[in-house]
Amino acid sequence: GKKKLRLILADQKLFGLTPKDVDLLTNCRECALGNPKRNAHKSDGEKEIFSFGSHIASDNTAEQKIKSIGGKRVLNVIIDAWSNWTWTYPMASKKESVARLRFIIMQVLKGVTQVVRTDQGGEYLNNEMGKLMADAGCDHNTSASGVSKQNGKAEKCIGDVIGMTRVNLVQVDRFDLWAECSNYMTFIKNRLPCYSNPDMKSPYEMRYGRKPNYKRFHRFGCKATAMFPKKKAPNGKMGYQSVEGIFVGYDDPEGTKREMLKGDTWKFYATHLEQEQRLQAQFERARRKQVAAVSA
Question: How far is CA 16 from CA 13, 22, 23, 26, 253, in A?
């Protein structure tokens, strides 16, 4: 290219060739037909993005040949351009993409999103997507057909998550756990240092302003025991108080453990969450009594 020729001219004087001659060079017909280059969108990193969730990108993987144990076949990925925080969601089909976007934009980000970037897939170009953009008041940018690098953040994120997931599935030899494994790999990815962020901060630190806790990192598929909730052990106090399974990740964002029990039966044991729910219920009852007393 012209840039390389200018560098060569700067290092070595070529007889009969000047910088003006380089500027006059144009692509030959063979290069134009055989090696064309498309102009990509300006990357989100070059734009002035000052807040979490203002610019997001979304994409889906191809339909997987192996169903997950929950019957999922597609992995949906949404990434924040400012912090590189990632959300992944296994889906039965791509038709759930807009519903997932609506949940992230309206419930998680509370309507602060200004720009949503996707490809030109049919799951994003429909009336449901247009209604979401109107309700959220944000713009919908699409990449050109066949130019995946214009949606590079989402594409790169999918490659990272799939690569991490594949390695762990091979180690465990349970490929039907790809949905659970991809969610756990996203949990880890959001807490690792990121080159795209200032001072290599992790997406977790960019979002919450504090360092992540790495003590909760465990090997996917390792042996784990799940404790029964209080007074719910099947054989009472004299029986087993926990059950053995394999570790398949956390429930984001609080980090509640998930264990896969024998027989592919899913149960969740989180005694501290039940305690939080009881405290929240007590607080709500006290608040209602206070409101009733003031109104009376």
Answer: 9, 11, 14, 18, 65
